[in-house]
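lol forgot to send this yesterday, sorry. struct tokens for the thing we talked abt
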């Protein structure tokens, strides 16, 4: 139907093999504009392979992939202008400060007013206080937030996040989740890969499960839950999760601000 807006990402019949290993065997999914799709799959399912094809780093053997209305195979330059990628391993420069990293990207992209862009991203990702410190002194969560901030320089309409929270502690993961949710609220389309069910639950408008080279399920969390028979009702005390306990003990320093006694002086 011509009245339907084109999705920000459209993947149809995507196939990819590495020699005799058939990793993708016909992958189909759409990501509507301004939404978050979580591509869920175990280790080796082919998540990074999908992201590499969408980001024009790898050619598919068959099928089509469109990003922002452009075909990755025939219009790779237009595709590259449309997205940014935060890879599975952080791309920040350790010996530069957070602010210098952002300035570097803004200058490489020939943007006007790189200082203003850097400062607004530092603010958006709660890194203003750490802006002048070398990244080598940052925590894992701060690095990841800086990494995501760097990928937003130039305001790409589409962002690929490949396992954005792998290796982070629960507090840092929540910081990254907050940043990602904010992105989608501002209209950015997000394709996120993850192995974590709770991450998909927290973040995604829709969840697609990649298994044996295909998308085996694609739906909202509520739709996915309806796929399982309802659990038997049991009367038990609601126990806090390990994550609740961890956060209660370690505390969320960023949010228990204003004058709590015992805080270290700045
Ligand atoms: N360049 C390559 N050459 C050969 N095999 C590869 C190559 N890249 C990936 N593979 C294989 O393809 C399969 C899918 O890899 P991919 O990295 O896409 O999985 P993934 O879902 O991202 O896994 P992870 O959760 O570990 O990141 C794996 O079995 C991997 O070993
Ligand atoms: Mg991967």
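and heres what i got for the seq, position by position
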């Amino acid at each position: 139907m011509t009245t339907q807006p084109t999705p920000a990402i459209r993947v149809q019949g995507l196939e990819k093999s590495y020699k005799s290993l058939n990793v993708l065997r016909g992958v189909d999914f759409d990501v509507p504009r301004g939404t978050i799709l979580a591509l869920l799959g175990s280790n080796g399912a082919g998540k990074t392979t999908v992201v590499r094809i969408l980001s024009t780093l790898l050619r598919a053997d068959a099928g089509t992939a469109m990003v922002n209305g452009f075909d990755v195979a025939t219009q790779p330059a237009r595709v590259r202008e449309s997205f940014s990628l935060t890879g599975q391993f952080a791309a920040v420069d350790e010996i530069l400060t957070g602010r210098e990293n952002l300035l570097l990207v803004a200058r490489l992209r020939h943007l006007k007013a790189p200082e203003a862009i850097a400062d607004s991203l530092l603010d958006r990702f709660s890194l203003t206080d750490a802006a002048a410190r070398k990244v080598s002194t940052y925590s894992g969560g701060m690095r990841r937030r800086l990494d995501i901030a760097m990928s937003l320089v130039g305001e790409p309409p589409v962002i690929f996040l490949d396992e954005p929270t792998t290796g982070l502690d629960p507090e840092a993961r929540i910081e990254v989740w907050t940043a990602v949710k904010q992105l989608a609220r501002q209209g950015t389309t997000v394709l996120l890969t993850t192995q974590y069910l709770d991450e998909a639950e927290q973040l995604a408008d829709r969840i697609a499960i990649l298994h044996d080279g295909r998308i085996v399920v694609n739906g909202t969390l509520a739709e996915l839950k309806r796929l399982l028979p309802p659990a038997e009702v049991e009367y038990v005390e609601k126990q806090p999760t390990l994550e609740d306990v961890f956060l209660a003990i370690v505390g969320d320093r960023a949010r228990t601000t204003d004058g709590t006694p015992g805080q270290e002086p700045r």
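The chain has a mean pLDDT of 85. anyway ping me if u want another try
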